[in-house]
Amino acid sequence: MSRRPSRREFAQTVVYTTLGSYLAFSTGACRREPTLRRKSGAHAFFTEAQFLTVSAACERLLPRDEDPGAIDLGVPVYVDRALAYDDYKHWSERFPHALAALDRDAQEACGQPFHLASADVQDDILEDWEDGNEDQREFLQRLLHLTLEGAFGDPSHGGNKDGEGWRLIGFHPGDPMPGMHHHGGKA
Description:
The chain is mainly α.
């Protein structure tokens, strides 16, 4: 795996994509109401074990340092909610299998599930997957996509807790346009 960018480089890389998505949603470009496929339990999509694994993986993609990480920003909650919608059905069908495979790889590496493995073991597994088979690479791309959406998107969707992701990139949303409702956090 190549050098990981600094948090500032990472944030600068995603700001334009995130801002574009935010503007599209806030101006009403995406008005269709998605269909939620809700299951019973604590999470909208994941089992508790899957939620722990996806949380650990998201945290390795956007780890806490002097700034909040993926877990602090509510990214796992966002990913759980997003995958419960029909709009992500083509992604959600593969996620449980990929998370089980992450746990198997961690069991082989250290005798523990992925979420209990050390950060170094988790990073090694994710680096192997980055150069792995097509399914592994695709899963990581989708997880990174959802991690970025959850970290820097509108807080009303479950991530970007209290607008902290926006503060991280220096984005301060203004008041909503007339007729629009602002669902954001304390930004």
